[in-house]
Write a structure and sequence with these properties.
- It is built from three helices and five strands, in the order ββαβββαα.
- It has 133 residues and is an alpha+beta fold.
- The chain has a five-stranded mixed beta sheet, with helices on one face.
- The radius of gyration is 24 Å and the shape is globular.
């Protein structure tokens, strides 16, 4: 007669520090988060965003970094090597917005190329001009 024995493993929660990078004139933020070690990174990102809902953070755009490594959403924190007391860096929390530099580049590109697109075939005046540059 064989008996199956199931082990119940109590996973102690991790107390982690999440830091954001300074941007422009604002200092980076730091917050303490307590989570189970078996929580997926994607769920952890959503948890952090809920804690900072006033800032409008977006879990889809957020990256979580541990010791220079980006953590994959489908892995658990424990699988990624996260330990009690570690600090993680959160980047890219805000939804993407095109910068004003990108908007100013488009008109200058249209002025230099013109309204109709030109292909750069060898021997054409545009290709010859680029070769000289």
């Amino acid at each position: 007669m064989t008996r199956k024995v199931q082990a119940v493993v109590d996973i102690a929660p991790l107390l982690l520090e999440v830091r954001t990078l300074p941007k422009d004139d604002t200092a980076g933020a730091s917050l303490a988060v307590e989570v189970p070690a078996d929580e997926l990174v994607g769920a952890f990102k959503r948890r952090v965003c809920r804690l900072h809902s006033a800032e409008g953070w977006d879990a889809v755009n957020m990256n979580i970094i541990l010791q220079g490594r980006f953590l994959a959403d489908e892995q658990t924190l424990a699988d990624c090597g996260v330990h009690h007391g570690d600090f993680l860096v959160a980047t890219g929390m805000l939804p993407y917005q095109a910068s004003s530099a990108a908007h100013s580049f488009v008109p200058s590109l249209q002025q230099s190329v013109g309204d109709s697109p030109r292909l750069l075939h060898e021997g054409t005046p545009v290709a010859q001009e680029l070769e000289r540059a």
